[in-house]
Design brief:
This is GMP synthase [glutamine-hydrolyzing]. Homodimer. Pathway: Purine metabolism; GMP biosynthesis; GMP from XMP (L-Gln route): step 1/1. By secondary structure, the chain is α/β, with parallel strands linked by helices. It has 2 domains: about 200 residues, HUPs (Rossmann fold, 3-Layer(aba) Sandwich), CATH 3.40.50.620; about 100 residues, GMP Synthetase, Chain A, domain 3 (2-Layer Sandwich), CATH 3.30.300. The chain is about 45% helix and about 20% strand. It is built from 10 helices and 12 strands. Strand 4, helix 6 and strand 5 form a beta-alpha-beta unit. Helix 1 packs across helix 2 and helix 2 crosses helix 7. The site of xanthosine-5'-monophosphate has 14 residues, from loops.
Length: about 325
């Protein structure tokens, strides 16, 4: 595609001219924007770029592998993974308030990334001497408009994107996607060879599964939710519904139990909620009319395959008055 290629070529030139022989870092989240931004910068300057991926333990099934293996194999980028799962879990222990969870996850993310960045800066200083001067961010055009808008609407949920970094950071920003919309970013990502599992990914909130467990976040609950979420996504994809669905959060009602029966026995397990929504921009949304037979397969599989889940319920609330996420 001529247009995509020319956008790529133009950005590659700009990035090369600006960076020179200096070094660059990028916080990779596994989402579309940071993955495509990093791929573009890598095309321009190769191993002068190092990506940092923070595994906070709130990721979905296979997400880490998709970054560490699929993405790295196809892009060839240098990647440092920080396994911070225990740190995040211990900071989240006992916390049930949604905004408190967001605050903790955002704070721990910044701490973890800054520590990793500081180590890389030190390494660079001890090495050949080229300093790390730039930080890549996957900012898109709608993000630029939104933050400059100042519409004065009430803050319903604090939406700090995890990956949102402190203002006093010592790096200059490289934002190669600033003029683009999401579908253009996806097209460029495909052109650059970013794996389809990443390019076509649904939006996923920075705080991850942490705000899809209603109640305290624990490792056991995360494992339960990860399984249920993977089944729902697999079946929705199989049914060809990805184009129609903006997002389908699966929410674990961890403090609710209900009675059920399975095999010869009584169960007393947790419900999960399916929250399929259709939307243009996440500002408003309608619940997606998923065919009953697809819902039926998802419900049967989740209750059969995931221990401790004995009920699947469907959220049929539009936004407004509901939000997309439950927290
Ligand atoms: P709500 O729940 O407000 O979500 O209707 C709108 C969109 O924003 C995502 N979302 C978040 N993204 N950090 C993020 O990076 C957050 O704290 C956060 N909360 C919600 C949500 O997944 C949906 O796409």
């Amino acid at each position: 595609d001529w247009t995509n290629e020319s956008v790529i070529d133009e950005q590659v030139e700009l990035i090369r001219a600006r960076v020179g022989s200096k070094k660059v870092i990028c916080a990779l989240s596994g989402g579309v924007d940071s993955s495509v931004a990093a791929a573009l910068v890598h095309k321009a300057i190769g191993d002068q770029l190092t990506c940092v991926f923070v595994d906070h333990g709130l990721l979905r099934q296979d997400e880490r592998v998709q970054v560490e293996k699929d993405y790295v194999d196809s892009i060839g980028v240098r990647l440092v993974t920080v396994d911070a799962r225990e740190q995040f879990l211990s900071q989240l222990a006992g916390v049930t308030d949604p905004e408190e969870k967001r605050k903790i996850i955002g704070r721990e993310f910044i701490r973890t990334f800054e520590t990793a960045a500081a180590e890389l800066v030190l390494e660079a200083q001890e090495g050949e001497g080229e300093e790390i001067a730039f930080l890549v961010q996957g900012t898109l055009y709608p993000d630029v408009v939104e933050s400059g808008g100042g519409s004065g609407t009430a803050n319903i949920k604090s939406h700090h994107n995890v990956g949102g970094l402190p203002d006093d950071i010592q790096f200059q920003l490289i934002e190669p996607l600033r003029a683009l919309f999401k579908d253009e970013v996806r097209a460029i990502g495909r052109e650059l060879g970013v794996p389809e599992v990443i390019v076509s990914r649904q939006p996923f909130p920075g705080p991850g599964l942490g705000i899809r467990i209603i109640g305290e976040v624990t490792e056991e609950r995360l494992n339960i939710l990860r399984k249920a979420d993977a089944i729902a996504r697999e079946e929705l994809t199989k049914a060809g519904l990805d184009g129609e669905i903006w997002q389908c959060p699966v929410v674990l009602l961890a403090d609710v139990r209900s009675v059920g029966v399975q095999g010869d026995g009584r169960t007393y397990g947790h419900p999960v909620v399916l929250r399929p929504v259709s939307s243009e921009d996440a500002m408003t949304a309608d619940w997606t009319r998923i065919p009953y037979d697809v819902l039926s397969v998802i419900s049967n599989r989740i209750t059969n395959e995931v221990d401790d889940i004995n009920r699947v319920v469907l959220d049929v609330t539009s936004k407004p008055p509901g939000t997309i996420e439950w927290e």
